Structure to design on (159 residues):
């Protein structure tokens, strides 16, 4: 699946700006959906029968929740010194961004296809759902390369 745009998602929202989801506008809700901060079901109007087709399309576009069974990954900001070893060793970074694989570092501004990127001197998790732990079913599901390679011990993967 390619990168989703907030506009593509927005077209499937009720466009009522009712604020029932906790966001100020449907566009803000769409942006939160793209970032996986909310779920389509967090929009009460989408649960109404007249929006059933849009809800189904949103679920298909967004795909299944990938956090199930993959655990969590955390970065301790106190320990992280921004060395970017995690960015370079991550197989997803190399697959998605050739410059990273060749040691030249990731693009700026933050690239939504990457899992990690150094932002303001600290490593940040950009898109955890792109991690091999969520994408695969084989041995890759046990990937801990970033955690093992971090020289500061700042990355922790919890099951």
């Amino acid at each position: 699946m390619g990168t989703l745009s907030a506009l593509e998602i927005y077209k499937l929202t009720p466009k009522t700006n009712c604020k029932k989801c906790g966001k100020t506008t449907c566009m803000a809700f769409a942006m939160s959906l793209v970032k996986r901060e909310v779920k389509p079901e967090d929009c009460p109007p989408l649960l109404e029968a007249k929006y059933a087709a849009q809800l189904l399309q949103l679920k298909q576009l967004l795909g299944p929740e990938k956090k199930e069974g993959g655990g969590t990954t955390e970065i301790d900001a106190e320990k992280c010194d921004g060395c970017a070893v995690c960015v370079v060793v991550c197989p997803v970074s190399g697959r998605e961004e050739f410059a990273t694989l060749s040691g030249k570092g990731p693009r700026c501004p933050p690239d939504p296809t990457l899992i990690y990127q150094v932002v303001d001197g600290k490593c940040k998790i950009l898109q955890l759902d792109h991690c091999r732990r969520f994408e695969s079913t084989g041995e890759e599901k046990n990937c801990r390369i970033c955690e093992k390679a971090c020289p500061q011990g700042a990355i922790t993967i919890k099951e």
Remarks:
- The beta strands are 72-75, 116-119, 122-125, 155-158.
- The chain has a mean pLDDT of 78.
